[in-house]
Design goal:
This protein is α+β, with helices and mostly antiparallel strands. It has helices at about 10-40, 50-55, 160-170, 225-285, 325-330, and strands at about 45, 60-75, 80, 85-105, 110-120, 125-130, 135, 150-155, 175-185, 190-200, 205-210, 215-220, 290, 315-320, 345-350, 350-354. α1 (about 10-40) runs antiparallel to α4 (about 225-285). It is elongated and about 115 Å long. The structure holds zinc ion (ZN) (2 copies).
Amino acid sequence: MDEFPVRTVEALCLGTSLALSGIFYYVYRKKRKTVDKLNDAPHLTLDGKLTDILNVTPGKCLQYVVIEGAVQPVGEPLRSQFQDGSVGVVQKLMLREHKLVWNGLARTWTDSERVLHQRVNAVPFNLVGSDEATVRVLCPLEASGLDMEIIHEKFHQATYGFTDIIGQYLSGEKPKGQLETEEMLKVGATLTGVGELILDTDRALKLRPPTDGSEYFLSTADFETLRVEQENQAVVWQVLASVFALAGAAVLLWVGRRYYRKLRVRWEQDRLRREFERLEAGAQRVGVVSAGSEASQDIPIENACVICLSQPRGCVLLDCGHVCCCFSCYEALPQRTCPICRQNIRRVVPLYQA
Ligand SMILES: [Zn+2]
Ligand SMILES: [Zn+2]
């Protein structure tokens, strides 16, 4: 093998697609596991019997369960900064800057967003079911899927004068304004929690992030919505992994095809050479001297190979029939075309003088 059959670009494409496919497959497997765990998780009703169930459970702990209840603060709730009378247990205040940035490549202004300030407050809270049964929710900020209600949203338009406009064109940035939002998990909202349920030493039920590393969920949507959402995400990762695996396979096929073509050219060359040698040997047996085996001295110039000028013309190129070169020059041709007429060379036979 004279050279490595994979070019740098091909190796790069192959490596990238295989690496991405691997990463996406890993994320997909993780998501799939989460979905499987969600499907297997038992749904518990939050009532007075729950404490008894946990009392007889070994370790007083249920690894992964789904539980639903109404949000109730343990102490004083949080008050909304913008909406009078709104109280909650988790509050997220955000200030985002919106601006237009000049994109030199697309030659347009594109939107850009940046978080200027973010604050999350939380107070301890319980989920309350029937019979006043409660479950304390631990570490709510570690949970996934907690999309809270937006209770306040206000856009502050940026104002600017003439000099600002010139400055914007020079800097390539045009401020649009600032968006102020407040999200809140309100008192009384129904919350679905998926996590580890324990009966603590103080005889209180507590929901906490699973100790086995499974994903902890708190969601204001119902369980089915949460499950379908996770399943859809798994499908997206699966599709991405497959697409990149296919891309990798396509690159491999491409390299293989090119390599095969090269091999075929080499086989054809070998076949022609063997045929030439066979014909030459056959001619010598019957006493005919082929033109190529003449002594190399004293070749008349009109009989010398047009390429090396030192050997006699020893072969006939077919189908064009030109007698123009010696066999070693024919073999060294960069392409299988006649050096005189550029026609394809299908066969090459020795030239005899009887
Ligand atoms: Zn020659
Ligand atoms: Zn020719």
